[in-house]
Design brief:
Number of domains: 1
Protein name: Ig-like domain-containing protein
Number of helices: 0
Organism: Stegastes partitus
Radius of gyration: 17 Å
CATH superfamily: Immunoglobulins
Distance between the termini: 62 Å
Keywords: Adaptive immunity, Immunity, Immunoglobulin domain, Receptor, Signal, T cell receptor
Domain Ig-like: 18-116
Largest sheet: 6 strands, mixed
Pfam families: V-set
CATH architecture: Sandwich
CATH topology: Immunoglobulin-like
């Protein structure tokens, strides 16, 4: 142990909704929010996905402050109490487990040394995209 180092880990509860089954070319919007008592303005929000639950690499999709000019767009609601991911046209290879993550904003500042590090990540949805529009 290094002397003088003290780290406290605080769990941030990211609230979730259920799985979704969608069709190719359909739009989808996923939303996440933080549990009561946590303020989203204190966190940097991220979206990730994992195409295969068994050892596949996790792909970072977008961070709240990134330009949303690609296929993946993110936004906050007007009260900044929920953070959403929009995919306007789904492809078969978008079938994935999607994650929302909250990282305390102080942890991203260069030279910032805080005794409280807060990082939360929660599995939110499995989105399965079907090419079959059976009735």
């Amino acid at each position: 142990l290094e002397s003088g180092l003290c780290h406290h880990v605080i769990t941030v509860l990211v609230l979730q909704s259920g799985d979704q089954i969608c069709h190719q070319r359909d739009p989808v919007m996923l939303e996440c929010s933080l549990a009561k008592g946590f303020d989203m303005s204190s966190y940097t929000m991220h979206w990730y996905r994992q195409k295969n639950r068994h050892g596949a690499q996790i792909e970072h999709l977008i961070t709240e402050y990134q330009d949303s000019s690609g296929r993946f767009k993110s936004s906050f609601n007007s009260a900044k109490t929920s953070f959403s991911l929009q995919i306007p046209d789904l492809f078969l290879n978008d079938s994935s487990v999607y994650y929302c993550a909250a990282r305390h904003s102080d942890a991203l500042r260069a030279g910032s040394h805080t005794n409280n590090e807060t990082d939360g990540r929660k599995e939110l949805w499995f989105v399965w995209v079907s090419s079959n529009r059976g009735k």
